[in-house]
Model the fold of this input.
Amino acid sequence: MKYKILCSDLDGTLLSSKSDVSEYAIEQIDKIKNDTKIILVSARMPSGMHYIQENLGITNQPIICYNGALVLADNTALASVCIPIHILNKINNLCEGLEADLGLYYNNEWYVPKTTLRVEKETKYTKSIPTLQDTQSTLNNWEKRNIGAHKIMLMCSKSSADFLMPSLQEKLGDVLNLYRSNDTLIEIAPKSVSKLSAIKLLMKDNESLTDIIAFGDNYNDIDMLKNVGCGVAVANAREEVKAVSNDITLENTADGVAHYIAKNLVN
Done:
């Protein structure tokens, strides 16, 4: 079947390395991009996605950032949903006395209280640079500006993450999407958005979810993969993701997305 739209997650999916799209992926997407809209869908901030768009030659397409909390086209926000400041203050209070730093994201702004190995890795892999500023100062500034967070990355010790995850779910789970990406990282987003909700926002009247093929690897891709015309998991995806997918391709490090495009989508 020919699909009108291809949506792909980046980290662990389209990217064959930690930060870059491969020449093979560029070649395969180049073969279909004139007839198929290519939409990047990620938890990343805009600056961590724009250079990949440029490499793929698809800067004319919108991007879905922060798992759907921010949707941009030509650097204009088509949708923007933030975690409000009073919730941010509650999260900051819950972290008091624990080994837990808040990485706070708004649009193309990224604030961290100090540099760490984790922050340095994120800087290297996403080619984005944070502002070093203590969390309370950032929250005070945002309150004056009347803005909130598109995403929070809680960078913890394992014991702090073990304590915080159930506490956050109990106290704020009704208004937040909470996703533990590994033993020491908790990603937090507004409850009302998802990759799927953002994709629906971008669809035109003559397009339906059955016109979409999507690729992913992690929990935040499940709704997207379950509901589009063809959901494809990479071989390195979590088992829960594979279980809801229509098909499975090679691992991201073996250019699974590009391989699938070459085998199934290129005329």
